[in-house]
Amino acid sequence: MIRPVKVLNRSMVLASAPFIGILIWLLTYQATIIISEQVMPEPTILESTASSVEETAADLDTAAELAQATQASIKKQVTLYNKTNANIQLIAESASSQTNRPRIIYDRRITTKLGSVSGTIQSDKIRAQLFSVHAQNFNGYALKVKLGSKDAMKMVLGNDEFGSSETTMSAVKRYNAIAGVNAGGFADGHGKRYPLSTTVMNGEYIGGFEPSFANLFFVGLSEDNKLIGGNFSSREQLDSLKPRFGASFVPVLLKDGRSLQIPTKWQVSPKRAPRTVIANYKDDQLLFLVIDGYNENGSSGATLEELQILLKRFGAVDAYNLDGGGSSSLIFNGRVVNSPSDGKLRSLPTHFLFFK
């Protein structure tokens, strides 16, 4: 009888026999193991990275060359732009010069007709030039004014009060103006001195609108600094010209360069007298004439017909006779230029003032 333990041992030997055989074979067999390149692939990642670095460096070089080329192109374009801009500027200046040339020639022509300039006040806002006038029967002064701003000229009331009056010199000093000329006519009443007929201040009617009568006219400046004037039958008619300021007197001397008929009364009453005239030129410059005379009895000063001839000779377009006689006043650069026939300046209700 075979014992169970022996059976178990035999079974274990039989089960282990293959493994023992393999172990003995491995120990006795000397083999060389060759690792195939396919088993251990090449470090392609490192080589790819190096290749990418080289390509990136090449791209950077190309980008740098492109940047340099772009920079050079930009510099070239900037140089070309600056040159073109400079040429355009020269063309613009030349065009502006050519545009202004007719104005310069025209101004030179009318200035020459007035004679030699005896005084000039100039700024960005205004150019005021003073001339002496010498005619066969009278002497006087001309003030040519080029306005460059709306606030370069305005009309003021005497002491800034309706019914009050002051001399032109007083108004000039009070407003610190560079020049002043007497404005419209006046009427006295109840110890007051009132502007005659339609008067406009700062676009407002002082004392209301009065239709033109007995050859009275209104003259002043519009909102765009142009001389406006004439006879007006309705306020709407005058409003259409957008008056900024102005006064009234008689008569109109020139219209569009043509002499108008002088009313019979004003041909002889007085025949000669100190005079003040406001006129304009084609380029909207203003001309003021202030004529001297030693009295108002008709024996000194100028006739209105003589002034028409003189104004046409000077090249004026429209012209209006302002209050004259002892009212004629011309202040320039702080001094009284004319010789007032009263022996002193007359106190007046309205004045044209000029500012630097």
Q: Mind explaining what this structure looks like?
A:
It is built from 6 helices and 20 strands. It has a domain at 115-354. It is an alpha+beta fold and 356 residues long. It has an 8-stranded antiparallel beta sheet with strand order 1-2-3-16-15-17-13-14, with helices on one face. Strands 4-20-5-18-19 form a 5-stranded antiparallel beta sheet, with helices on one face. Strands 11-10-12 form a 3-stranded antiparallel beta sheet, with no helix packed on it. One of its GO terms (molecular function) is hydrolase activity, acting on glycosyl bonds. The chain crosses the membrane at residues 12-31. This is Phosphodiester glycosidase family protein. Keywords: Glycosidase, Hydrolase, Membrane, Transmembrane, Transmembrane helix.
Nutshell version of this structure?
This protein has 356 residues and is of the alpha+beta class.
